[in-house]
Amino acid sequence: MSTISAISTPFGKGGIAVVRLTGDDSVSVLDRVFKPASGKPMSDYPPNTLIYGDIYKEGKIIDRGMAVIFKAPRSYTGEDSAEIHCHGGILLSQMVLEATFLAGAVPAGPGEFTQRAFLSGKMGLSQAEAVIDLIDAQSESKVALAASQADGRLSKRVNEIYSELMTIVSSIYAYIDYPDEDLTDISVDDMKNGLLGIKNALESLKRTYKTGRAVCEGLNTVIVGKPNTGKSSLLNMLLGEERAIVTPIAGTTRDTVEETVSAGKVLLRLCDTAGIHQAGDIVEEIGVKKAVEKMENAELVLAVFDGSNKLDDEDRDVIGQLKALKDKTIIVVTNKSDAGSVLDTADFDGITDHFVSISARDGAGREELVSLIEQIYIDGEIEYSSACVVTNARQFASVCNSITHIDNAVSALVQGFTQDIAGMELELALSELGNLDGRKVTEDVVHNIFGRFCVGK
Ligand SMILES: Nc1nc2c(ncn2[C@@H]2O[C@H](COP(=O)(O)OP(=O)(O)OP(=O)(O)O)[C@@H](O)[C@H]2O)c(=O)[nH]1
Ligand SMILES: [Mg+2]
């Protein structure tokens, strides 16, 4: 493999910057760029040891710093690797990087270090994804969950399920190829039971995605309501800053305002929208259309009503639209509790069971709203430090597809079809499980995943 290098620390001034190398020639590239103060070459030093010395570019010393070598396979990538720690100047770290290029390294692409770790078998794909989640994490709960998945827990569990399934598939093929010989002691009933056990294991993994998604991917959440109910005030309250314009004039928000915010353990991808009503002009009309579209595409709808006033025709129109929504979680937020509260849950019959009363202006009710969202999305049984959790749509799709193939195999067995039909379905299930951890994943998927990383990771 070629030797690649990149600055692994963020762009900007800092105490130190780290230039990272990986590939067969890492040590010889390092020897050309870094000379230990002792006069001995770096290659004479043992690995995993930080050594002090001079950093050279085109024969001139440009900085003093530290360097370390990691020998294959005991490195992040599984290859020979090295790091140079220089002072954290923007130009200086760039010059050190260029020195590594002059010494034979080539620039690393986004996520290429982790991609190499995956290719050399150091980590599964779900583990690599957990590393992205860790880097992206905006909430403590996401850090906790990603850190626990980055140790390869999900990969391990999926591998166990894969092996169990493989045993059954082998028995089925042994049975088909040599029906008269006693090669397998598994009866059709045993096979069915074994498959149902595997299906149950996959079903419990599948259930963890509700929590995994809420914590890691975030929930697509829209704030809707008629004008002036306090939608933008709610966005600001959740964010803890005056992000959206709030005025007493109905129709203040015309375009959507989008922000990501953590609500306790849940990550909300929030969208504030224009008040839904009969629009007065073309700009408003477009805003209202956008609001309705966002509502139809969201998964969590925060429907805001002014709880200090009786419902009017505009509210009733919003309620009608909420009733028409399918497969969404709706929370009715009655706002302006400081000004009185004349609405009750009966006013929202048939929309939802989730209600909360707040005063977005004063911040009252924020905790109740957050804990209601956590109650809906976070499975309290999931212990982050020990559980296997499905955290993204790609992993979830593999789990769902493998369940479907197992179901098909079981019904083939139950209906007495020839066993090769069940065998074919189970091979598809195996291939789906293989996808989950990258065993059989296509090159496109791999590129797509690692392309989301930053350069230097
Ligand atoms: N008393 C009281 N007034 C509030 C509260 N929340 C918002 N308001 C007021 O209600 C008015 C409208 O608030 P916004 O947050 O702009 O309402 P909106 O739903 O975004 O309005 P549009 O963007 O016009 O649809 C402002 O005058 C706010 O100060 C609250 O909790 N109590
Ligand atoms: Mg607004």
What this model shows, in words?
Helix content is 45%, strand content 18%. It is an alpha/beta fold and 457 residues long. It has 3 domains: 4-119, 2-Layer Sandwich (Gyrase A, domain 2), CATH 3.30.1360; 153-214 and 386-437, Four Helix Bundle (Hemerythrin (Met), subunit A) (Up-down Bundle), CATH 1.20.120.430; 218-360, Rossmann fold. It has a 7-stranded mixed β-sheet. Strands 9-10-8-11-12-13 form a 6-stranded mixed β-sheet, with helices on both faces. It is flat and about 85 Å long. It starts with a strand and ends in a 6-residue tail after the last helix. It binds guanosine-5'-triphosphate and magnesium ion.
Sum this structure up briefly.
With 457 residues, this protein is an alpha/beta fold. The chain has helices spanning 26-33, 90-102, 112-119, 125-136, 140-149, 153-177, 188-217, 231-239, 282-297, 313-324, 366-377, 393-414, 419-437, 443-451, and strands spanning 4-7, 14-22, 34-36, 51-57, 60-70, 81-88, 106-107, 219-224, 257-263, 266-272, 300-306, 329-335, 354-357. The protein is 45% helix and 18% strand.
